[in-house]
Amino acid sequence: MAKRMVFESYGVDMQRCDSFIESNDYLLRCMKYRTPQMDENDLGLQPHSDLTITSIVHQLNNLNGLEIKLKDGEWKGIDASPSSFVVMAGDAFNVSIP
Q1: Which residues in 34-48 are b (16+ Cβ under 10 Å) and which e?
Q2: pLDDT at position 88, please?
Q3: pLDDT digits (tens, 9 = 90+) for 38-86
Q4: Angle at CA of residue 64, ends 63 and 69, nearest 5°
Q5: By three-state DSSP, how is residue 74 classified?
Q6: H helices then E strands: how many in the chain?
Q7: Which of 12, 15, 56, 76 is most deeply buried (CB count within 10 A of its CB)?
Q8: Strand, coil or helix: what is 18?
Q9: CB-based contacts of 75: which residues, under 8 Å, 6+ apart?
Q10: Rounded to whole angstroms, how far apart are CA atoms 33 and 15?
């Protein structure tokens, strides 16, 4: 549904949208990070962007590792409630308008 809404907002023909959606495979990947032990450095990933269509992040135990990259290149930490999920559009939804 999210893909359909994005395609519609950009004025893409719904027949092409349906064709695109039907031609794709989908993957769900779950990752869980633990709190670093006394003798360990921070765990997790290097700064990166997600190539996928969407990412869903649920931060627990005060492990606020989620950051977003601003247009000026600065990374901004996200302090999300442990009772919420953050849903982000990934790189696949980037659009350059000339």
Answers
A1: eeeeeeeeeeeeeee
A2: 77
A3: 787 665 667 777 776 677 777 776 666 778 888 898 888 878 777 888 8
A4: 150
A5: coil
A6: 2, 4
A7: 12
A8: helix
A9: 47, 67, 68, 69
A10: 41
